[in-house]
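Extended Data, panel c. Modelled sequence:
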Amino acid sequence: MNKAVISLLLPLALTGCALQSGQEEPPLPAPVTEDQLEASLNSLESRLTATMFNQNTQLSANHHAYMKALQQEIRSLKKRIVTPPPSPTQQPPASPAAKNTDDYPHDETRDGKLIVGETEDVWLEAVNDIFPARIDTGATTSSLSAKDITVFERDGKRWVSFSMAHEGVAEELIVETPLVRRVRIRQASADDSERRPVVALTMRIGRLSEKTEFTLTDRSQMSYPILLGREFLKDIAVVDIARQNVQGTPRRPKASE
């Protein structure tokens, strides 16, 4: 057999050996059009977007649940915290709005009213002298010890003249002042009422100077020549019956006042 025949038969022989071994050539992929490729890419993109959305939703839900659990844990820890009391040597800071009680005078209330005791000393301008007075919340009006009470007319107006009458008070202390009016007073120990003249005199108790109405009556048998009643006390003073002379001796005004 010549060389030309051998060269033609050799490839055929090799092909036959390959077929006998069971090996086959893989089929070639089918051709893909441009529209099919675009549709496949769009499908892949939609699946990727949906997957990312689902993952983000799950992450957000997990984060929310974690934060909620963390807040509950913080609240639980706060309830378990016990604030220790201040040490005896360390006082808590006072509020800016709070004031020490030492900032207020001991003879006044916080709203500026006088604190008066069962008895107080008062200054009367009419005689420029100081007298002891009894504070009586049971009496409506204030009263002043007087004798030789005389009502007269001056410049067409009614005036009254009287002398201070009490133990330790000289009777030559004569006062003349306009008559304000007359009032009818009924004593608890008497059946009949009594008409008394009323005068308005300037008096001073503590720091307060006030023109006060007094009924005139003989109090020489009483312990105090002056009695201060509710009409004077209302809106300007409160009474502490457990104390006496809270306001101290009133200051006499200077000549220039």
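The mean pLDDT is 78. This feature is highlighted in the accompanying rendering.
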